[in-house]
Structure formats: C-alpha cells, structure tokens
Design brief:
The protein is of the alpha+beta class. 45% of the residues lie in helices and 16% in strands.
Length: 381
C-alpha cells in the first residue's frame, strides 16, 4: 500500500511519555478505499489512534440538479447514486413519487421490482464480498464473487439493455416487461448460484487466514449501531434484527417466506457473513416471486409525461443492499420537485469508521472500511 506521509507530531502516551505520531493520507485514489474516499490516519507505529474520513470527491450536487428536472427525467439520475445497486435508488425514488402523486402500482410490476431488486442485492453483495477477499489477499474469492455478479449483470442486460445504470423502475411500474424465457433463465441459474455461494463460504469464511483477518476487527455493539443510525448488514451483523422488508414491510414482501440473517459479534467477519447469507435468502425470494407472478400490466395507465403531483411532501424508504435508503420529496404543484433529500445508508454507516478503526493496525483500517460497504456516489451525492 502506498501512503502519503503528511506530517509528524508528538503526543503523550498513556504512561505520560512522549510518542511520535505519524499522520498519513490513505486515498482518495487508492483501490483499498473502495472509491474516492480519503482517510487521514493518525498512527502510533502501526496502530491507528485516529481515523478521519474525508468525503466529497464525487459530489455532483444531485439533490440540487433534480430541482431542474421533471419527475420522469430524475429516474436515470438516481442510477448515479448507488451505482453498485442502481435498481434500489430507482425504486426508492419511484415509491416516494407514487406516494406523493397517489399512483397505484399494478401487482405484476411490484413482483418485477422485487425480482430485479433481490437480484441486485446479490450482485451488490458479491461486489462487497469480492473486495473483502481482495483486501485480505484472497484474490480467488474476488474472482468467484464476480463470476456470480457477472451472471446477474447479464440477466439485467437481457432485461433492459444496460449493465450498470438501468433506468428500469419507473413511477407507476417498470419500463418494460420481461423478455421471453427470462424467468426460466433465472431459475436455471439459481441452483448454480447456491453452489457458488457455498463454495465461497468454504473457501473464504472457513479459511484460517481470512478468519484471523476479520474476526474481532471493527467490533460494533448493537447499542452503538442503533445510536449512530446504522442499518443493513452493518447493523444486523451486531445483532440488530431490523429489516424493512420484514419490520416495516412494503410492496409484496409479506407474501414471501424468508429469514433475516443476524450476527452476534458485530465484527467485520459477521458483517461479511450476513451479506453472504442474505444472498441465499434473496434467491428464495426470487424463486417464490417467479412462482407467484401472474400476467397483467407492468405499469399504471394514464401517467402523464409531465407528472405534476399535488403540493405537499412525501417520504418513502426501502431496504437496499446497504440498509435503509429513503427519499424525501417536496412538491409545489409544478412538473419539477421543489426539493429532494436522500437518506443514504452508506453515508450513515461510513460515519462509524473513526469509532471502529481506533486501536487497530493500519492494515486493519482497510478491512474496517470495506466491512462498511460504502458506495461514494451515494455518500457524496
């Protein structure tokens, strides 16, 4: 790892003796920061005494830009928030618009949203698990994870022609119905996906070196997780049993039988393992959704191109791969929103880095940061 030494300073150790403290930059242009994140690390030898995340390198003013776009023109902009899980930002935004405008979504569209977003959850977790493998020196784990992710990306390409930013979920439904044989392609892949995930579990999480690098690193208590507003696998890895799909349910999720994986130790190992187990549950949901889905319209009728909801405000949130993703919209009755605010789970989870990194080595700082699974398009906005 190449680090930029900023300065040297002297501080006092616990026994009162002077200790030379080194301040180094990690990032922002470094693969181990999982994006354009800069961490100012204060180290005593190899031990981190203070870690300050510096964000804003990917700030594009999205929340301001949307004030000059129509409600439909905003959908592709939401793709650029969490670009590892674009379907989620589409869906969270559209649910807020639908609540604001009183739009009722057809049942088939709700099922299509669930299927695509659960596949997106697996793809996002594969990105996180693969990078965790790379951070700990397990390059094979990275390759296995991206093999699973690639198949999902190919399925999305068959569905809507795009591999990263999909613009698929729209106010009132989805942009198009599925191509012929698409559900069969998914079902023929799910067993192979389970086998691949089981192989990753044995290869990586059962490996002595990986367990040594992850267990006991970045321990987050359930109390701190709740107090800091953490959500998703970061909170559930600490034993916080909270998943919006179960506990503030929406769409057609009440019709599915699935479990919420919860950890007990709150360390980097439990956070990563929760993501792995969530992939099994997402496969269960997808299979049940395909079995239950019925023919019908895939979008609501009569939605004008220049949608102008009544004056007022609305907030809606969904369970993204990183946690509780919420969109707050204010309408003044025009075809453009007066205000939009994104409640980013990646931003809230990243705030835990100074708390979790202190006392660990510099090499463990990378593990802690990766275990929070940040996506800086959503953090910075």
């Amino acid at each position: 790892m190449t680090l930029d030494i900023k300065e040297r300073s002297w501080t006092t150790g616990s026994d009162g003796t002077p200790v030379e403290e080194l301040v180094v930059n990690v990032g922002p242009s470094h693969p181990s920061t999982h994006g354009v994140c800069r961490v100012i690390a204060h180290v005593d030898g190899e031990v981190v005494t203070k870690a300050e995340p510096v964000i804003g390198y990917l700030h594009r003013g999205i929340e301001k830009i949307v004030e000059n776009r129509t409600y439909l023109q905003i959908v592709p902009i939401t793709d650029r928030l969490d670009y590892v899980g674009s379907m989620y930002a589409n869906w969270a935004y559209c649910r807020s618009v639908e609540r604001l405008a009183g739009i009722r979504v057809p049942e088939r569209a709700e099922y299509l949203r669930v299927i695509t977003c659960e596949l997106q959850r697996i793809a996002s977790h594969m990105m996180s698990l693969g990078s965790t493998g790379a951070d700990t020196g397990a390059a094979t784990m990275f390759i296995y994870a991206f093999d699973v992710r690639e198949r999902i990306v190919e399925l999305f390409e068959e569905l809507c022609g795009s591999r990263l930013t999909y613009n698929y979920v729209r106010p009132g439904g989805v942009s198009m119905d599925v191509p012929e044989g698409w559900f069969d392609d998914i079902l023929s892949w799910t067993d192979a996906a389970r086998n691949s995930i089981s192989q990753m579990d044995r290869l990586f999480f059962g490996n002595f070196i990986a367990r040594g690098r992850l267990k006991g690193i970045g321990v987050l208590s359930a109390k701190d997780a709740v107090g800091w507003g953490a959500s998703g696998p970061v909170a559930r890895g600490s034993g916080v049993n909270w998943d919006l799909r179960k506990h503030d349910t929406y769409s057609v999720y009440p019709r599915f039988d699935f479990d919420v994986p919860v950890g007990s130790n709150g360390d980097a190992y439990d956070r990563a393992r929760c993501r792995l187990f969530e992939c099994y549950e997402s496969l269960r949901i997808v299979e049940q959704a395909i079995e239950q889905i019925e023919p019908g319209p895939f979008k609501a009728d009569g939605i004008p191109r220049l949608l102008a909801p009544r004056p007022g405000d609305a907030y809606d949130h969904i369970e993204s791969a990183r946690g509780s993703l919420g969109i707050y919209l204010v309408s003044d009755g025009s075809p453009r929103p007066y205000r939009m605010k994104v409640r980013s789970p990646a931003f809230c989870n990243l705030a835990l880095l100074p708390l979790l990194a202190e006392g660990h080595t510099l090499s463990d700082l990378v593990i802690v940061l990766g275990s929070l699974d940040p996506v800086f398009g959503e953090v910075d906005r």
